[in-house]
């Protein structure tokens, strides 16, 4: 059986569960909404798998569907009774989502969250005022709020009640730890697509992987990890503050890339000069060959002398 190619497939966590759907406002540069599923005390982000990889180095080699330019993908389902193929499906995947990323994006820089300790109910009320009419504020279970707030807030206990105050230091430590985890993973997995993109930026025809300085590779990998972590959920200004606060430096990477650019420019200039010399030499040879061709001899013009007017005519004249 061939299912219609507009059919959607959603990969959910194993087991039979019921889920509620919420849409979180995405404050990153991507905009739009973050679509999530909530099941008890867990939250999952829904992402579409479209077969396109932004980190592919040779994108021209990726198989594509004719006319639509879409990715080539099919799913084969097997069962004891009937199997079927889903051609070019719209595939959605539910991944575990850390709500702390989202709370950083909506709480950072807001005085009502960072100036004093407030209860969870006060936090939810403040979010409700900021995002008036959006159902997600009250749809997220308290347990998910509490778990995320513990990662990015200072908290105190008084009279069996917990109070929270947003902490930039804790939030940045949370993001830095995630960045370090991704960096460590990438450095240990050279075959990952993002790693191949990193290497393509650092390699040239005269430099192989063994000649890349370790500090340059470390800085480049860290920089891409920051883009990966912060680019999806965190506003640009928070990313900039994080880099300044944690004193991330790209001095070795910037110098290395500048040297590569200068080397590339030098090679291009040398190649252009060589091509110019080759073209000029070929043109000169063509001109020389054309000039050396034998020219036709010019016919000498002889002026005819009228009969009786020549120099010897008087000698032969009768007396």
Identify the notable features of this structure and list them briefly.
alpha+beta; 5-stranded mixed sheet; 10 helices; 3 domains; 319 residues; 44% helix
What does this structure look like?
Its main location: nucleus. With about 325 residues, the protein is an alpha+beta fold. It has three domains: about 1-95; about 100-165; about 170-260, no CATH class. The chain contains ten helices and eleven strands. The strands form three sheets. A five-stranded mixed sheet has the order 2-8-5-4-3, with no helix packed on it. It has a three-stranded mixed sheet with strand order 1-7-6, with no helix packed on it. Helix 1 (about 100-105) crosses helix 5 (about 140-150), helix 6 crosses helix 8 and helix 7 packs across helix 8 (about 215-235). The longest helix has about 40 residues, at about 250-290. The model has no long low-confidence stretch (mean pLDDT about 85).
Uncertain residue segments:
none
How would you write the strand order of the largest sheet? Answer: 2-8-5-4-3
Average pLDDT across residues? 83
The assigned structural class equals alpha+beta
Helix-residue proportion: 40-55%
Count of β-strands: 11
């Amino acid at each position: 059986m061939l299912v219609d190619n507009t059919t959607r497939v959603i990969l959910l966590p194993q087991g039979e569960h019921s889920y509620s759907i919420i849409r979180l406002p995405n404050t990153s540069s991507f905009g739009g909404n973050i679509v999530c599923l909530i099941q008890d005390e867990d939250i999952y982000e829904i992402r579409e798998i479209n077969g396109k990889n932004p980190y592919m180095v040779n994108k021209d080699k990726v198989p594509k569907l004719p006319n639509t330019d879409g990715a080539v993908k099919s799913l084969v389902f097997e069962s004891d009774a009937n199997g079927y193929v889903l051609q070019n499906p719209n595939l959605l995947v539910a991944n575990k989502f850390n709500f702390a990323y989202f709370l950083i994006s909506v709480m950072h820089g807001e005085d009502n969250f960072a100036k004093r300790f407030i209860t969870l109910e006060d936090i939810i009320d403040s979010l409700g005022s900021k995002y008036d009419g959006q159902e997600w504020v009250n749809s997220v279970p308290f347990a998910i709020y509490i778990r995320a707030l513990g990662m990015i807030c200072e908290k105190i206990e008084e009279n069996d009640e917990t109070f929270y105050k947003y902490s930039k230091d804790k939030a940045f430590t949370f993001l830095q730890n995630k960045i370090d985890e991704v960096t460590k993973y990438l450095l240990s997995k050279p075959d990952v697509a993002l790693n191949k993109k990193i290497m393509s930026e650092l390699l040239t025809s005269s430099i192989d992987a063994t000649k890349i300085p370790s500090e340059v590779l470390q800085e480049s990998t860290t920089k891409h990890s920051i883009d990966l972590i912060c680019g999806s959920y965190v506003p640009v200004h928070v990313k900039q503050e994080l880099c300044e606060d944690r004193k991330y430096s790209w001095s070795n990477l910037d110098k290395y890339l500048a040297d590569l650019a200068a080397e590339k420019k030098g090679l291009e200039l040398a190649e252009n000069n060589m091509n110019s010399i080759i073209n000029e030499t070929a043109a000169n040879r063509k001109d020389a060959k054309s000039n050396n061709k034998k020219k036709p001899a010019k016919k000498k013009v002889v002026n005819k002398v009228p009969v009786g007017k020549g120099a010897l005519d008087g000698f032969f004249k009768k007396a």
